[in-house]
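Page 42, continued from yesterday. The earlier attempt failed because a stray header line got pasted into the input along with the sequence. Redoing it now with the clean sequence only.
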Amino acid sequence: MTEPRTLPLPAPPALSDDERLALARTFAQQLARRRTVRDFAPTPVPRAVIEACLQAAGSAPSGANQQPWHFVAVSDPALKQRIRVAAEAEEREFYTRRAPDEWLQALAPLGTDAQKPFLETAPWLIAVFYERTGPDVDGRKAKRYYPHESTGIACGLLIAALHQAGLVTLTHTPSPRAFLNELLDRPRHEVPYLLLVAGHPAPDCRVPDIERKALPEFTSFR
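This time it went through. Structure tokens are written below.
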């Protein structure tokens, strides 16, 4: 077996433990201010900002370094309108027929419903796809390893990068999402993962009054 090619790891910055702690706490405090938003302003966001955030997402680790994700950034108003129509059709089915009462009760405090005007108002929609297998090569499908987990990590980095850039986001997951393949001309071997809405909050934006778990509630040290 051929030895894998390697490169020296660039030297990390020389920091004291106190400096590392300060950086970690500052980053945690920044992310603690992140909130999911449903009221967006139509204020434009330059494509270069979205590109930089997508570059951060593309640095995520992935199974066998296969990078099984694809991001489609949409700003075209006509295409956003078509996505909204298709997404709301699935959402109406969800709220009226598919969702069990327990699920609807869990959503009630958030005030969500089948209407998704933010899909047109926000300046950017980022559709995320992942590959279960690669494209056919000589009649064979190339297996992808941990594509769902890998793409989830990439989306986490993307959300953090957009927040760092001073933008707000919403993770929108209409189900089923196959309409995204058709509207965005993506091949069948790519699976729609989520639709990330990104932009500026509306001036009168309000968010649900919720609390996040305290650190001891979701961590253990052994």
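Notes: The longest strand covers residues 190-201.
Reminder to self: strip header lines before submitting.
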